[in-house]
Specification:
The protein has 280 residues and is an alpha/beta fold. The protein has one domain (2-277): Metal-dependent hydrolases (TIM Barrel, Alpha-Beta Barrel), CATH 3.20.20. It has 13 helices and eleven strands. The strands form three sheets. A six-stranded parallel β-sheet has the order 6-7-8-9-10-11. Strands 1-2-5 form a three-stranded parallel β-sheet, covered by helices on one side. Strands 3-4 form a two-stranded antiparallel sheet. Helix 9 (184-193) runs parallel beside helix 10, helix 10 crosses helix 11 (238-249) and helix 11 (238-249) runs antiparallel to helix 12 (262-269). The chain starts with a strand and ends with a helix.
Length: 280
């Protein structure tokens, strides 16, 4: 079974404004269709794939996916899909939205976008968010790493800020998205020291040297078991992501240094992420 921990559900006209929409072509060298096509996702994934579906809220960057749309999206395939709510804590009423998404809509985790929304996740002012998630067993998927959006605040994307959150909330499961690229070493340092903090490998395969280098670092630090599979659909697909991981696993490596261990790459692809995140 494949567990995709990072799949978006976007309906462009409704959910994505400026500058996010117009600047998305910078993501990986060309225009991206940001609409989630359910059939396309299913047809480009192994048949037994289960998927965590997220939206996103970041008023500063023009992204706002209402949590009800995520609830409706996953309700059509409840055996395959798990929905997360989203929070932009810079906006009025965010705590009410969080409670509604969890208690009324039944969403099972939280997507957080500090860089896009423009806030420091380590600021104690946001501890009520993390405390609520910890108390109610809501795993976080936190965007870490760079972006194509000009209004996003890059310093709040660095994985090191989540180290402080994990120190104050040690029982809170967190996934740092995209291995924090290009701050992968920082990301690995964070996930190594915290039992309940993981990283996903989504949206990296189309930069193959970066992916190879990141996985080598993870292997050297002994934390490949803390890496979870993700696609970042619609930016890429599950099958393309799996193929990309296997392709870098076949690279001979640098003479005199050990290559990637293909068995460890296969274990990343097959990670029991729902069990690790306490979602089953």
């Amino acid at each position: 079974m494949i567990i995709d921990v990072h799949c978006h559900a976007f309906q462009c006209a409704e959910h994505i404004g400026e500058p996010f929409r117009s600047e998305s072509a910078r993501a990986h060298g060309g225009e991206v269709d940001l609409t989630t096509h359910r059939e396309h996702y299913r047809n480009t994934s192994p048949a037994d794939t289960r998927t965590i579906v997220i939206g996103g809220k970041a008023r500063r960057s023009g992204l706002w996916v209402d949590d009800t749309s995520i609830r409706d999206f996953v309700a059509r395939e409840p055996d395959r899909l798990i929905g997360y709510l989203s929070v932009d804590p810079t906006q009025p009423g965010w705590q009410d939205e969080m409670r509604y998404g969890h208690q009324e809509l039944g969403l099972r985790g939280i997507k957080l976008m500090p860089m896009y929304a423009g806030f420091d996740p380590a600021d104690p002012a946001y501890d009520p968010l993390f405390a609520y998630a910890e108390e109610h067993g809501l795993p976080l998927l936190v965007h870490t790493g760079t972006t194509f959006v000009s209004t996003a605040v890059l310093r709040w994307a660095r994985p090191v800020h989540l180290d402080e959150v994990a120190i104050r909330h040690p029982e809170l499961p967190m996934v740092l998205a995209h291995m924090g690229h290009p701050y992968e070493g920082e990301c690995l340092a964070v996930i190594r020291k915290h039992q309940n903090v993981y990283a996903d490998v989504s949206a990296l395969h189309y930069r193959p040297f970066q992916l190879w280098h990141s996985l080598q670092l993870a292997q050297d630090y002994g934390v490949t078991h803390k890496l979870l599979f993700g696609s970042d659909y619609p930016f890429t697909t599950v099958n393309e992501s799996i193929d990309g991981l296997r392709a870098v696993a076949r690279v001979p490596g640098i003479p005199g240094l050990p290559p990637l261990d293909p068995d460890k790459i296969e274990r990343i692809i097959a990670q029991p992420a729902l069990e690790l995140l306490r979602l089953e």
